[in-house]
Design a protein that fits this description.
The protein has 2 helices and no strands. It has helices at residues 34-72, 77-118. α1 (34-72) runs antiparallel to α2. The radius of gyration is 25 Å and the shape is elongated. Helices cover 65% and strands 0% of the residues. With 125 residues, it is an all-alpha fold.
Amino acid sequence: MVHRKHEHHHQKNEQPHHKEVESKDAPYKFNESEYDKARKNEKHHKRMEHLGEMGAAAAGAFAMHEKHQVKKDPEHAERHKVQEKIAAAVAVGAGGYAVHEHHKREESKKMAKEAHGKKHHRHLF
């Protein structure tokens, strides 16, 4: 009997009804070109950059809200001041992450351009 990862509910001669999960060490069925890898990496970093930008905007908005709450709710002013400072720190961190991802994206774009320069047969027109 061949050992499979999803053997738990299958009969001896029954085929599994779902795909088996292959390990990351398994060879890929297709070979991505350097250009395609760089473009995929560029898109990933672009999405992460936008995620960092959204996080910075959201944390900044929350910090502004908490600053307003200090004036509006003087009874809990100390709590609002602490939350404002935390939100401001998160906004700065998220902005830094967005800048980091922007630089990674630029590197990927440069790699894609270099890899694309090696292939002149990619575009037909």
